[in-house]
Amino acid sequence: MTTNPEALRSTDPQIAELVNAEEARQRDTLKLIASENYVSAAVLEASGTVLTNKYSEGYAGRRYYEGQQVIDQIETVAIDRAKALFGTDHANVQPYSGSPANLAVYLATAKPGDTVMGMALPMGGHLTHGWSVSATGTWFNAVHYNVRRDNGRIDMDEVRELALRERPTLIFCGGTAIPRTIDFPAFAEIAQEVGAVLVADIAHIAGLVAGGAHPSPVGYADIITTTTHKTLRGPRGAMILASEQYAKAIDKAVFPGLQGGPHNHTTAGIAVALAEAATPEFSEYAHQIVRNAQALADELQARGFELSSGGTDNHLLLMDVTSKGVTGKPLAKALDRAGLETNYNTVPYDPRKPFDPSGMRLGTAALTSRGMTEAQMREVARWIDQVVGALATEESDTLDKAIDQVRGEVNELTGRFPVPGLDR
Ligand SMILES: *Cc1c(COP(=O)(O)O)cnc(C)c1O
């Protein structure tokens, strides 16, 4: 390792202390947030290197600063690995994160005022798919599709009707709280019928796609965007993958359209994560994530929890907790005290407000990175049930006692499953 933990401690003990505290928190809690993960020690190391010292606006061989002998190679390796892993003609690994990556797609393919289409945020879509509070909803005429009330799945009839009526320039598929397989061929057919560019935003499921645990959008979507830090298990960053046809426009949109210099230390971390994701072990990991989510879903359902769409095909599940006499936010806070880190979330057609919605989102990618399997998922479901039961009594003593007990059991479990990148 080139970094020296002593340096931080002696230069800035305050921040060193806080980093240590966060390390301990990550080690001692169960990370059930569907968008988070633990990177490997190798990714962590690559991300914290002197590459952060270098400016490299432009692309390999066409930079605006000298001294790119090494950076050009690193970015080229990352691009080649991305193209090989996902099987696309083109990859841009410079977007700072998922939101700017999506913005680059708009810049590359649409004009302000154009009609764009995406899944509604409260149905599981993402802000950057044209939701009103996002720049994308301000600068474009955004229209949204929903999930069906009866089965919680994307209503492809509605998608087609809306697309035929509104003739969008862009159609986004993918989202942040979709527990089911995304039907890329069906979206592609609709996009083709109306002459729209289809964008598959696979931020959440990129690792599953890479590992063969979710169908790939390649060959169906014109452009694919993804974060690198969710199921893909890389550093915080993003990529845009596309066929040759969109390559130039995408690159121009990222730089100079939206960004300045790429974060080269992140690019190195992405390259390492992509190499890891190309291994048979990662494919096994991706499949285990899904098996774990299904085990968690089964046990929660057996305990009477109501799951949006009735289950999961991927790494996440969405549950409506109101039938248990509790709501999302106080439950998420109680679980956090018990060592289970989750997020409160709206469920489709939620009658409650986003600030204290009916639901909660759970994901299994991070726990699977710690080597946990179905048996641990059943324990997690039991602990959630226990905290929910105590919370529903509205007696603070009962809740405190349940939280203490669960916290103790969680500590015992986390002690047995080291965190990649932490417990060396
Ligand atoms: C997480 C996510 C993003 C945004 O990523 P950030 O890195 O948080 O900007 C975009 N789209 C989808 C579907 C996501 O889940």
From TrEMBL:
Gene3D superfamilies associated with the record: Aspartate Aminotransferase, domain 1, Type I PLP-dependent aspartate aminotransferase-like (Major domain)
Site (Plays an important role in substrate specificity): H229
Keyword Calcium included in the entry's annotation: no
HAMAP family given in the database record: SHMT
Assembly with partners or alone: Homodimer.
Family: Belongs to the SHMT family.
This protein's name: Serine hydroxymethyltransferase
Originating organism: Phytoactinopolyspora halophila
Gene that specifies this protein: glyA
